Amino acid sequence: MKTPLAPLLLAPHRREPAWLAPAAAVLGILALASIPGVPAEEVEGRFSIAALPPTLQNALHIPLYGIITWVWLRALHHVGQRATHLGLAATAALATGLLDELRQGFVPGRYASLTDMALNAAGILLALLLWHGLTRQLTPR
Q1: How many domains does the chain have?
Q2: Where are the transmembrane segments (predicted)?
Q3: Is the pTM of this model over 0.85?
Q4: Is residue 43 part of a domain?
Q5: Burial level of 130, CB count in 10 A (0-12/13-18/19+)?
Q6: What does DSSP assign to residue 53?
Q7: Cβ distance 65 to 130 under 8 Å?
Q8: Which domain holds residue 128?
Q9: How far is CA 26 from CA 45, 69, 115, in A?
């Protein structure tokens, strides 16, 4: 069964250079990693990631890095065979996560975490599996 949304999710936008969306995603992540951590009680009454329970904050790494991987996949889908662009996208997303964690290590109230890297990897893997499944549906046999 083919998913009707698959072509829309996989088709690259030709209006901008392929590197633009991944570059924006990496810069966005690094900007978020630069925001100093604040205790949850200091943000009471206004929205802040710090106000969310720590478990939920950690869980947000999964969809975030899934999206980052998807952006890399869309930019790199034309590079080589399927295994090549899957590997390049995974490497780029993992490198983004590593930069993110390293950056957080230098920001007051933030810290680098292996748990976060593992959750990033889970999001990356889920995106790769979803992409692989959708592209297999669209590939003529």
Answers
A1: 1
A2: 111-131
A3: no
A4: no
A5: middle
A6: -
A7: no
A8: 53-141
A9: 30, 11, 20
